[in-house]
Amino acid sequence: MFRSTMLRSAEITATITQAATDAGFDLVGIAPVEDAPELEYFPRWIAQGHAGEMKYLEARDEQGRLKRASLSHAAPWARSVVVCAINYNTGQPYSTQAPSDSTTNKGRGWISRYAWGQQDYHDSVMQRLRQVEAALKRACGDDDLVTRCYVDTGPIVERVAAKYAGIGWIGKNTCILNQRLGSWLFLGVILTSLDLDPDLELGLPAPDRCGTCTRCIDACPTDALIAPYQLDSNRCISYLTIEKRGSLPQDEELRSGMGRHIFGCDICQDVCPWNRKAPATKAAEFQPREELVNPALDWLAEINAEEFSRTFRGSPVKRANRAGLRRNAVIAMGNSGDRKFLPLLEKLAADEDEVVSEGAGWAIRKLT
Ligand code: SF4
Ligand code: SF4
Asked: Which fold is adopted by the domain 2-90+119-202?
């Protein structure tokens, strides 16, 4: 009896692995549902205000417990987590490979690598995840089986599950890192009521290979990595350019540190030695749209509602909103050191959007 249950579990694990490969995932692993030590820090991180205005991270259950602090609270029925990862890296140079004042990048902004693709990764990773979920259901043949698929939206800290599924280790830059693929990985998770055998081939949990390296911490321009493995979102350029609504904080160091970033920031991944030889993805939907790599700042500062909607339909960039993207573009102009932007900034200082006009005023002062 025990032997046949084990055999069945191993068969289902093999089916999941095959289905994930067929769906185009580069890595797949299975983690048990248990409270990992990494999650003990989460309530403190929230209490210290490091999540900024990202209120969704503070979602609580009926007893007032933080959902993301324990999967056993948020999904008491879940027994295992299937974690799938897909590489989104492309052959384009890293943001740190050419300084922002080089001829190529002069007057150009930076959109984070993950947002260059043809399709929002939430949708494309979810489509692939559904294929794995369907194969799991077929293999299991149990009508009572419960599954839930999530790409960033679940009551779960995906990178912690990924660590215990053997996908990689959590680096000092707080990203999941795989020894072979680096850190350019999208994660998707399937919670299931099934007790699944972890795939021991990947090794659980993935060992930490950061060693004595501190490159990511040293390179962060806004000191957002306040300690190894600890991020203060309020100082992170990704948070400031994507999640922060309204005007940016009146903090000179922070605004200057944003450099030419207008959507996200890749610096702490660009400098990571494990990304030096990161392979490029084979997935067609992650191939970069030319206009999103080193985009022109004046184009984005003046983009109208119709063009914004057309350009960023189905793109993660729309999360920043048009006002946020324009605000970020004028701040980047201020940081460019290029006085050719002054006439446009003078015009934008009278923009009807106060967030843009405030940013333009700051940029003019910075340039003059
Ligand atoms: S994404 Fe940029 S700002 Fe945020 S921690 Fe990494 S280097 Fe710092
Ligand atoms: S840069 Fe160094 S310390 Fe930071 S994540 Fe990479 S290996 Fe770890």
From this structure: NADH Oxidase (3.40.109)
